[in-house]
Amino acid sequence: VEQTLILVKPDGVARGLSGEILRRIEAKGYSVTGLRMFTPDRELLAAHYAEHEGKPFYEPLIEFMSSGPVVAIRAEGHRVIEGFRSLAGTTDPTGAAPGTIRGDLGRDWGLKVQQNLVHGSDSTESAERELSLWFA
Ligand code: GTP
Ligand code: MG
């Protein structure tokens, strides 16, 4: 069965939305099979976000993601990777469809990095890679 890595980012944890986000994952019918809460260090984040190295939002992204605790979730279910991306909504929360996590709960704060509440793996390869980093 397919697995994915979901992160409640520091903005989601700080706003007290971890429970609401877990609720939406479980309400959709996916199983939560792993749960960890901690503040990730730069080394983990550099490995996680290697594909974005050199982009203008890279440094602010690492800064933001290491600014406080995140909730790392291993979720399982048929087509959960695509399914959670769909629950999350588009990267920019202002344009994200109502009904999605980012559309209902997120907004653009005008900062250097999109504080968009959640991360979800985007392919089976990234899911496998990311799960081995966050659930080593
Ligand atoms: P994740 O699920 O977090 O990976 O989001 P995503 O797949 O929708 O976005 P992507 O992997 O392209 O980028 C990772 C994260 O970098 C995003 O979630 C944002 O927090 C941030 N980010 C991506 N693109 C931009 C951008 O163009 N501008 C800004 N300010 N931040 C961005
Ligand atoms: Mg991504």
From TrEMBL:
Lineage start: Bacteria, Bacillati, Actinomycetota, Actinomycetes, Micrococcales
NAD as UniProt keyword: no
Enzyme active site: 119 (pros-phosphohistidine intermediate)
Coiled coil: none
Keywords: ATP-binding, Kinase, Magnesium, Metal-binding, Nucleotide metabolism, Nucleotide-binding, Transferase
Domain Nucleoside diphosphate kinase-like: 1-136
Gene3D superfamilies: Nucleoside diphosphate kinase-like domain
Record: residues binding ATP: 9, 57, 85, 91, 102, 116
Protein's name in the database: Nucleoside diphosphate kinase
Encoding gene per record: ndk
Gene Ontology biological process terms in this record: CTP biosynthetic process; GTP biosynthetic process; UTP biosynthetic process
Keyword Transcription regulation among record annotations: no
Gene Ontology molecular function, alphabetical: ATP binding; metal ion binding; nucleoside diphosphate kinase activity
EC number(s) given by UniProt: 2.7.4.6
